[in-house]
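Here is one chain, start to finish.
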Amino acid sequence: MTIWLNAGIIFTLLAIILILVKWGNVRVVGVTPVKTFTFIAILFTSGLDVGLIMFPLTEFAGYADIKASPEYAFANPLSIEFGFWGFLIWGFYFLTCFYFCVIEPKVKFFEIPWVKFINNVVIIGTCAFTAYLLLTNLPWYIPQLGDGESVIPEFYLIVLAAICFAVYSSTDIKYVRFLSISTTWLFIALIAFMWVGAFVLGDSEMSAFTNNLGSIGTYFANLPQFILPLNDYHEFYLFWWFAWSIMIGQFTSRFVGGLKTYQVLGAMLIFPSIPIAIWFSVLYQYHEAGISTTGIKNFAMVFVGIVFVINSLDSLVRLYTDNLNLTVKRLGKAKYIAFNIIALSLLTLLFKLEFLQIQWVGALVIGLFFACAGFIVYSKFKTVSNIDSSPKANKIDYTKIETAS
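Its structure:
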């Protein structure tokens, strides 16, 4: 699996370079373009899930234990955490976003029946994994509801409620902008709330925050170290990013609003990384200073984490139901909602039983990358070589999202 993953990463980086060289100045326009801030909000809230909120406080100690994991010795725990979530790996999303916006309309690789089937298996499987992550992390963040370790019925109900809300919001695309922008501001509010708790009401010096931010620079100084997997845990993360990449690319490609290709890459690498860096810097202070997050702080993180899950599931449900023609228009709203709630709930339980692994999903995506490249070289090379713009039918009209179905 490691060799397969390494091959996928190298292929992805080379493909990004090729895109920049050949199409770097092409204006990228999706079928439902939105303004840049809205696009970034959709990208950020759809492209991340509950792990961003819930994982760091459980991981910093492991990254600091270089006796048990000497491969982390080259950087501090904060920069390791950032390396698993920020900057370079957002290039995965850029590659798929550009492909689905500019190349796929000419190639139509994902309209091939067996490809469409695998693609939707990937999307549905990752949907369920997102819900599973929320379920398994709730005991750590809401220990007052149980023993801090076991998943109890109340946690299943919380996850079921998130699935129900997401499925309902996916019934109309007009909810995307509202949900994404609202979640972005909610996350900013959470950062501010936690920052005040650490640096104003807590005992930490204000300079500690800037020191934490500065220590993330170690990531950039050691960027090549993060390209290939450091260990099995990093490998899990990279497979996870691959699993997400193909569907986030399909979804976000709809909303690109006329940025040039190099600007889309810059926006996708830089803008999501800024709030991630700030958030991790705040959480790292809680870890370093031993500041408790029990009570309202844990509740706030869980609430925002649930909202992130709703955002992610909303975009993914809409994507696979469109691909499979299981839309509200065809099924009716009641049948659409019931079908998706039942399907996602059952698949979440399969991840809980460890019957499914996200690494398998990521490996499937890498296989699709290679198959797509082979298909282009074999039968669509001239067609792709002649591409010089986004599809002509895609016009910059920011009102389209109001009327899209």
